[in-house]
Amino acid sequence: MSQAEQFLSDALDAFDFGGPVRETARYGCGHVNDTFCVRTPSRRFILQRISAAAFPRPNQVMANIVAVTSYLRDQIAASGGDPARETLTVYPARDGGSFYTDREGGAWRVYPFVEDTVCLQSAETPELFAAAARAFGRFQSMLKDYPAHTLYETVPRFHDTEDRLAKLKAAAAADAMGRVSQVRAELDFVATREADCSVALQALREGKLPLRVTHNDTKLNNVLMDPNTGEGVCVIDLDTVMPGLSIYDFGDAIRFGANHCAEDERDLSNVHFDLSLFEVYTRGFLEGTGGALTPAELDYLPWGAKLMTLECGIRFLTDYLEGDHYFQTQREGQNLDRCRTQFKLVADMEAQWEAMQAVVDKLR
Ligand code: ADP
Ligand code: GN1
Ligand code: MG
To answer: 49: part of which helix (H) or strand (E)?
Structure first.
């Protein structure tokens, strides 16, 4: 047994799955945690080793998730929904804790598998994209009265684009992998957009945009969909639920979903921002948030899209320069390819900026 297999086996032993474990296999397309599907004769579970690179304080991550999911469970039950299906449920370890810590300090947690759902890697139809938008909008709206100050900031400065820019500059200056010479064009692309990195933060500092409880990682594959009704069922990947801006949740979903390419597409001629999908998502998100967004938040929605895309490109580029320690990669250069798709999408958004604003004006 390899060391990794031994750690996995120890983690499995730390939970009582209610029956013998028949199969454990890697699962899903997340870039951060190690995810496994665990099968017993009667049920499936998701077992995850929380990424230590992303989350140095897993106890805070789990405290947030336990608190937020129990709050959501009450809300969902009160409105006649099915909490076992519509929110994640933390499945306790044998010792009663919300996670198990291995000998290296790695944290492992379990969720019951939310069955009869699908997880999409791209918006197969505009209707599905709209349904995801409603689900993420509803998620934010369900948490609108949650006491934000009681949540840990699980990743400090997660969507602080100014800080992301500073970290990119530091990585370029250090050039630990000797890769800077390959990415001059990308560094120039960022350099001409330095002022953009402050737009949302400045609006927050000036009190124009309110701090809310947000998800902060609203990729399409972080909401499970009902394949029969086409509706969003359960928002997952709650590691980054913490105080944030509504435009981050809107923008990150646009970044990932309002196009027809993979995030790591190598042929940039296939990468296009799709304004009609932007409209579809905007309509769904406004429905889901139920009129809760302020006029300023609506004004800044296009900025949310552009900033989350620029920031994500900056993060992929930083990780590439630092040696791919943060985002999981399957091939050499993948983080650079991811960075390039993001920057192409940013350029497309800039070219269609007035049209994006017109969409929001039409729907508000
Ligand atoms: P990461 O942070 O690495 O993206 P996620 O928490 O998003 O990890 O999980 C990775 C994938 O595992 C998801 O995209 C989804 O396919 C699947 N998944 C996670 N939790 C559940 C669940 N409770 N039920 C069914 N599938 C799940
Ligand atoms: C990561 O965990 P996952 O794969 O859903 C990352 C997001 C990025 C995204 C890019 C905690 O999301 O911030 O936008 O990759 N999550 C974390 O695909 O860093
Ligand atoms: Mg995920």
So the answer is: strand 44-49
* CB-CB neighbours of 196 under 10 Å: 18
Ligand 3 mean position, distance from CA 221 (Å): 6
Ligand 2 centroid from CA 41, angstroms: 32
Which residue among 27, 32, 255, 326 has the greatest number of ligand 2 atoms within 8 angstroms of its CB, and so is best to mutate?
32
Q: Is 140 within 8 Å of 211 (Cβ atoms)?
A: no
Closest residue by Cα to atom 1, ligand 2, is: 31
Task: Give the list of residues 6+ apart from residue 63 with CB closer than 8 angstroms, or none.
Answer: 98, 152
Domains located in the chain, CATH noted = 3-113 (3.30.200.20), 126-363 (3.90.1200.10)
The stretches of 14-113 forming alpha helices (DSSP H) are 58-78, 83-86
Q: Cβ of 188: how many Cβ atoms within 10 Å?
A: 10
Tell me if 99 sits within 8 A of 109, measured CB to CB. yes
- For the chain, give the percent of residues with pLDDT over 70: 100
Q: Is 0.85 surpassed by the pTM of this model?
A: yes
Top mutation candidate among 50, 120, 122, 219 for ligand 2, by most atoms within 8 Å of CB: 219
What ligand has the least distance to the C-alpha of 311?
A: 2
Q: What is the pLDDT of residues 11-48, one digit of tens each?
A: 999 999 999 999 999 999 999 999 999 999 999 999 99
Whether 336 and 316 have beta carbons less than 8 Å apart is answered as yes
Q: Which ligand is nearest the CA of 87, by number?
A: 1
pLDDT at position 308 over 90: yes
Q: Whose CA is closest to atom 5 on ligand 2?
A: 30
pLDDT band at 1 (very low <50, low <70, confident <90, very high): confident
Q: Is 222 in the pocket of ligand 2 (CB under 6 A)?
A: yes
Mean pLDDT of all residues in 251-274:
98
